[in-house]
């Protein structure tokens, strides 16, 4: 009789432990780190730099055909380019985490007098690649304004920027893509659906 009670008690303890383990929230995704190993923070300005040589310079605003301006890179590495700020989709989140939807906004003003937020743009008719433009997505969920930072498969503190806003709209089906560059008339434009450019983040001094 005592052995039956002991078995029953142990079974109950194991059941409680199993339920508790299931109820525990999953650990948060890893923070995105800058080139000094510090976690990226909401609202802080960072430069986006290519992580490999001969891949252009810092990310910047490109005047392609007048307004709106496009997202792109300086042609050569150096001190040119504009910093950006990151705003996570998850309200109250202060740390930028891997694979989380977020807005990317240049800390700059243009003659277009409009938002400098990154936005998924039109397809280039010649290459069929989707360009990254600036401005506000006027759709109901503004999915075009949400990107994410994904850890690159190699390197330390090296990442890729992709468009796949499944946190913003979990039930939507997206044609996801990762940012690379497209050279057009001597200008480096950012675009999806092609070669990928790995990047690092440098906190503005």
Plain-language structure description:
By secondary structure, this protein is mostly beta strands. It is 11% helix and 29% strand. A 4-stranded antiparallel sheet has the order 2-3-12-11, with no helix packed on it. Strands 8-9-10 form a 3-stranded antiparallel sheet, with no helix packed on it. A two-stranded antiparallel ribbon has the order 1-13. Strand 6 and strand 7 form a beta hairpin.
Secondary structure elements and pairings:
Blueprint lengths: L1 H22 L22 E5 L8 E4 L7 E4 L10 E5 L13 E5 L11 E6 L6 E5 L13 E4 L7 E5 L13 E2 L1 E5 L2 E5 L7 E5 L2
Antiparallel strand pairs: 1-13, 2-3, 3-12, 4-5, 6-7, 8-9, 9-10, 11-12
Task: Name a few traits of the molecule.
single chain, 205 residues, mainly beta, four-stranded antiparallel β-sheet, three-stranded antiparallel β-sheet, 1 helix, 13 strands, 11% helix, globular, disordered N terminus
Structure summarized in a few sentences:
By secondary structure, this protein is mostly beta strands. About 10% of the residues lie in helices and about 30% in strands.
Uncertain spans: 1-25
Helix-strand pattern: HEEEEEEEEEEEEE
Helix run count? 1
Instruction: Count all strands and give the number.
Output: 13
Task: Provide the gyration radius in Å.
Answer: 22 Å
The rough form would be described as globular
Distance between the termini: 73 Å
Estimate percent helicity: 10-25%
**Arrangement of strands in the largest sheet:** 2-3-12-11
Binned strand content: 25-35%
Q: Overall mean pLDDT score?
A: 89
Structural class determined from secondary elements? mainly beta
Largest beta-sheet details? 4 strands, antiparallel
